[in-house]
Amino acid sequence: MKEKNNKGITLIALAVTIIVILILAGISINLIFGENSLIKQAKKSKEENRGGSVEEYCNLWKSNIKLDTETGFSTSQTLDELLNDLKVKKLLYDNEIEKIQNDGNITIGSHNINFNLEDNDELKPGLYQAGTTQLIKSWSELISNGDLIINGSKLTKISYELDGDLVISSQITELNKYGETRTSSMSGTPKLKCVNIPSTIKEIPTSAFGCFQNLNKIILNNGLETISDSAFIYCKGLTEIIIPNSVSKIGSNAFKNCSNLATIDIPESVTTIYGNSFIGTKWYKSQSNNKNIYIGKIYYGYKGSLSQGKIIEIKAGTKVIANNAFESNNWNLIISMPKSIEKIGNGFFNEVATINYEGSQVEWNKIILEDPSYSLNSVNINYNYNI
User: Fold this and answer.
1) CA distance 145 to 369
2) Which one of 211, 240, 252, 300 is least enclosed by Cβ atoms within 10 Å?
3) Structural domain boundaries in the chain
4) CA distances (Å), 5 to each of 1, 8, 11, 12, 334, in order?
């Protein structure tokens, strides 16, 4: 009887042991092959490390391109060269490289890696095929070939033969006037299609790009303060111009006879402008006849025939009256002026006999006159006028 009990206990123990072994085996199999298995965790960790490495190389590549932009030299890899290096290092596979080349981005593990140069990533200085990011000549090549002549930080010559889009190095802080830039060896019409002017340039001097008739795009960056007289006169290819918020002055005839210029974007930072700055443009021609013309909060002028003693009403909210807003002919105009006016340009009082001013004399005295030496003795000013 005792022997029979022992056998029973042995069988039970054996069964328990087998069950325990199976449980342990199941746990081990799950640890090795399950959803959160060691093998899968190892693969995931490897992918995370690979993704981190690729992202690091990508960021370094972008930093090198930015450095090239600042220095004007071409030292960084192309995208294809970078991708090939990452393939050699076994960090990227052929299908991933193809995806990057097509889409510009890829996801490895938790890393979303973008190889595209974003809008705020500047192109390297140099000459590009028109309308593309295909570099034709680096900045250093343009200088060594004599296509550009640099004197210190001043760009003194741009060859008329350059055909494409020019990105000027941020090492340049000054441009030549047109008369100084043009030499006896330069004839014909400049072929440039686009010029990207860096933020280091504070002024575009007189006629700097005058008669660049093939120029269809100008990129002006924040940092620019002055667009001088006739800076882009007769640039017939221009269709649009966006003035950055740093600009305060647009000179006389700055965009005169840019016959295809239809869209202009001028910020409130501009407080000096001329009534002829955009004369002869498609934008000017599109303005209604016998009407006041405004650019934002600037009173640009009157389009149409003036007559002696004509009444001109300037709308509320206007802050600036352009220089030479009225063609010179001693018109003895009567102006209704809101108290929002902060600055009045040159030549205005030559054509005005009477000003009906909405504000008080104290408010009038705060208005900035472009020519503070001008005598107002010949102008009758009525204060606190109900417009």
Assistant:
1) 49
2) 240
3) 35-114, 287-387
4) 6, 5, 10, 11, 126
Joined tokens for residue 143: 């200088």
Angle in degrees, CA 352, 357, 358, rounded to 5: 155
Task: Decide if 322 contacts 250 (C-beta within 8 A).
Answer: no
pTM of the shown model: 0.68
Cα 189–chain centre separation: 27
φ and ψ of 259, to 5 deg: -65, -20
Q: Which of 154, 262, 283, 284 is nearest to 216 (CA)?
A: 262
Closest by CA position to 295, among listed 324, 275, 312, 280? 275
Q: For residues 127 and 138, give the distance between their C-alpha atoms in angstroms, rounded to a whole number.
A: 6
SS3 call for 13: helix
* H-helix or E-strand spanning residue 294: strand 291-295
Q: Which two tokens stand for residue 383?
A: 């204060």
- Measured between alpha carbons, how far is residue 223 from residues 58, 68, 121, 201, 226 in Å? 29, 20, 17, 7, 10
Pairing of strands 291-295, 263-265: unpaired
pLDDT tens digits, one per residue of 272-329:
999 999 999 999 999 999 999 999 999 999 998 888 999 999 999 999 999 999 877 7
Calculate the alpha carbon distances from 110 to 34, 41, 107, 234 in Å.
21, 14, 7, 54
Using the 8-state DSSP alphabet, how is residue 379 labeled?
S
Rounded average pLDDT over 351-379: 90
Residue type, 16: V
Provide the CB-side half-sphere exposure for 101 (13 A, CA): 13
What is the Cα–Cα distance from 279 to 319, expressed in whole angstroms?
21
* The one-letter amino acid at 9: I
Tell how strand 105-108 and strand 111-114 pair up: antiparallel
Angle of helix 79-88 versus helix 94-103 axis, rounded to 10: 160
